Amino acid sequence: MNLASLLETWGDTNVLAMAGALVGFIFGLAAQRSRFCARAAVVECCEGQTGDRFSVWWLAFGAALVGVQALVWAGALKPSDARYIGAVGSISGAVLGGLLFGAGMILTRGCASRLLILSGNGNLRALLAGLVFAVTVQASIAGWLAPARQALASWWPIDGGAGRDLLQITGMGPTGGLVLALLALGTGFYFFFKTHQRRWGLALGAIAVGLSIALGWGLTQAIASQSFESIQIQSLSFSGASAEMLMRVLSSATSPSLGFDAGLLPATFVGSLLGALLGGDFKFEGFKTENKLGHYLTGAVLMGFGAVLAGGCTVGAGMTGGSIFSLTAWLTLIAIWLGAGLSWRIHRRMGWQI
To answer: What secondary structure does DSSP assign to 11-23, as a single string?
Structure first.
């Protein structure tokens, strides 16, 4: 059965939800087994190392760049149709939101995707922080925090189009993007095998994390090209998806219609849970004396507000938007790393445990 038949039989929204579930399951399982974590990668860099966690993160990012840019080069993906490039954005939102998100993920001991992965492993601290994150995201989209978010974003807006596309700004085009992606993947392999030597299973997990982002872009672009409805092409992003899932849980009458995000979060959780059970990593964990509840709650709020202000989380804006070389996505990713590094250094200097 081809894609057109699937759309005719099941409908656009259901097929999109199935696509989101497939991508989410692969990401959840691969991220759990490879211990993919942006926060841990930042901490290693702050400690002057390019160790286990950084090498996994960079290899995954390189794989995402290559997978997505290969789709663009082959004509199977049109980045200009994505919101990270085609829609109006904000330079101030990307920078300020990224800094807040980075500081928050140090406090919660994980970014939005990592909290979901850890929740599937039985970590109740991550589950609580994830719930606060989702509430804050919704409040920042259309609640009490929305006016503050809109005010900060209005400081430096940027029109959608070529001005948000780094490959067009620099004149490199699709071929240049693919070359840069291959360089990133090559350095990813260098750091990985410098640290992990012959651990091929871990490398495959990291690559699967990155390629799941390309799979999301490719599937939604294919569905959009076959559908008679207006379909937004997208891939992995956990901020908007978290708010959408929260609204589904609270009220089925007002919840948004099915789509890619509807399948993404549940399947990511299931993938992580399966990985934890297969690897013997599942264990219920609550708060201990050294696990400060205030840190987790404060960090979740900072991440939720920062994600909406920046237009995405570490995976959503940083890797998904970064893989199509969106200017604001790269600014967000850089700001997240800077914000996380600064927060980590402040905590170490003050002697605070995080």
So the answer is: -HHHHHHHHHHHH
Query: Residue 10 and residue 178: Cα distance in Å, rounded?
Result: 35
pLDDT number for residue 251: 72
- For strand 89-90 and strand 157-158, is the pairing parallel, antiparallel, or unpaired? antiparallel
The rounded distance, in Å, linking the Cα atoms of 268 and 103 is: 24
Residue 74, C-beta contacts closer than 8 angstroms, at least 6 positions apart: none
Paired tokens of 133: 């994150």
Q: What is the structure's pLDDT at 315?
A: 95
Of residues 255 and 141, more confidence is placed in 141
What count of Cα atoms within 13 Å lies in the side-chain half-sphere of residue 16? 25
CB-based contacts of 59, cutoff 8 Å, min separation 6: 185, 188, 189, 191, 192, 203, 206, 207, 210
How far is the C-alpha of 164 from the C-alpha of 329, rounded, in Å?
A: 9
pLDDT of 336 strictly over 70: yes
Q: What is the pLDDT of residue 1?
A: 58
Cα 338 to its chain centre, rounded Å, is 17
| Token code pair at residue 335 | 């700001």
User: Could you tell me how far CA 288 lies from the centroid of its own chain?
Assistant: 28
| Cβ atoms of residues 134 and 245 within 8 Å | yes
Task: Say which residue the tokens 């990592």 belong to.
Answer: 114
* Averaged pLDDT, 275-294: 82
Whether 290 shows a pLDDT value over 80: the answer reads: no
pTM over cut 0.85? yes
Measure the CA–CA gap between 203 and 185, rounded to whole angstroms.
12
Residue keyed to tokens 């939102």: 93
Burial of 186 (0-12, 13-18, 19+ CB in 10 A): exposed
Task: State the number of CA atoms in the 13 A half-sphere of 267 facing the CB.
Answer: 20
CA 180: distance to chain centroid? 21
CB 187 within 8 A of CB 54: no
Q: Is 150 helix (H, G, I), strand (E, B) or coil?
A: helix
pLDDT band of residue 354 (cuts 50, 70, 90) is low
